[in-house]
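Students often ask why inverse folding is considered easier than folding. One informal answer: many sequences map to the same fold, so there is more than one right answer. In these notes we will look at a single instance of the problem. The structure comes first.
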């Protein structure tokens, strides 16, 4: 049994991670400020004596005895991270520094949840870990993109300077049950609009591409990386099947048997035109291959949103 801290543990991905770690026989301390996370996401774990829930913002230091730290704390959708851009940057700089200090003090291994957004609007496709990215440092998304790039830099500097045991995972688009209704992400938006038979809103002409990973596959990749010796990343984890946004919308209309029509609005500033992970390194170092195909994952997510609505 390990004592494991999960920051952002009441969020969409964090709650699935907490569940997996508990099921594997660990003691889990879930820390969340509930800005985008929800107590409902971890309600089913509250009666388990190996689960603790602490309301706390990692911008403030916290003292805990832990063996491992999964740092997921940060709003991850444009709607939420742009709502308070300064707070988003602080979470990725001050918050990450606080978690690294905790890891240093307790000799804990720490995994940073980084993102495909560090690649920006890529000119290399698919994206490999040695690609440095194409990010607008002063754009409306930079609070998140550049924040996560700084977080990676901090991780590497703490490793080089203080020998902190680090892991860096670059997460590509992830979906599944417990996504927030109001997060503005394409999968949740489309499913909710389709279930309500409302027009499905596509930004741009719908030709931009994304790769969608079901949450169970992502969480599996995270835990394998955390417990892998002699490999710290950064490593891409996601699903390398690529779809246009228009293809996704049509798939969701079909799976929900919806009467929704597609409507088009202008593309937001700095929105990437294409995004697909090169998973060669993940396969080689972690034995990672996604197993849930997009239709099966969407059906599970649709069932979840039916109960929410």
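Output (designed amino acids):
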């Amino acid at each position: 049994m390990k004592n494991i801290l999960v920051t952002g543990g009441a969020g969409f991905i964090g709650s699935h991670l907490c569940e997996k770690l508990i099921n594997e026989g660990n003691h889990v301390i879930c820390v969340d400020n509930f800005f985008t996370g929800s107590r409902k996401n971890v309600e089913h774990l509250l009666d388990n004596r190996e689960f603790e829930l602490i309301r706390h913002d990692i911008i403030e230091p916290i003292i805990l005895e832990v063996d491992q730290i999964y740092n997921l704390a940060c709003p991850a959708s444009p709607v939420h991270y742009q709502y308070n851009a300064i707070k988003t940057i602080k979470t990725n700089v001050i918050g990450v520094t606080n978690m690294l200090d905790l890891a240093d003090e307790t000799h804990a291994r720490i995994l940073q949840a980084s993102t495909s957004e560090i690649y920006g609007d890529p000119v290399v496709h698919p994206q490999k870990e040695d690609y440095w990215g194409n990010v607008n440092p002063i754009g409306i998304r930079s609070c998140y993109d550049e924040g996560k790039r700084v977080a990676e830099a901090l991780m590497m500097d703490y490793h080089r300077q203080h020998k902190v045991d680090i892991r860096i995972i670059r997460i590509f688009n992830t979906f599944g049950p417990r996504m927030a209704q109001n997060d503005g992400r394409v999968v949740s938006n489309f499913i909710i609009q389709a279930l309500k038979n409302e027009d499905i809103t596509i930004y741009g002409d719908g030709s931009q591409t994304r790769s969608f990973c079901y949450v169970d596959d992502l969480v599996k990749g995270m835990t394998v990386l955390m417990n892998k010796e002699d490999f710290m990343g950064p490593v891409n984890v996601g699903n390398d099947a690529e779809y246009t946004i228009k293809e996704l919308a049509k798939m969701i209309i079909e799976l929900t048997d919806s009467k929704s029509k597609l409507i088009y609005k202008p593309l937001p500033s700095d929105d990437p035109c294409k995004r697909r992970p090169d998973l060669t390194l993940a396969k080689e170092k972690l034995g990672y291959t996604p197993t849930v195909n997009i239709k099966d994952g969407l059906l599970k997510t649709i069932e979840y949103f039916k109960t929410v609505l």
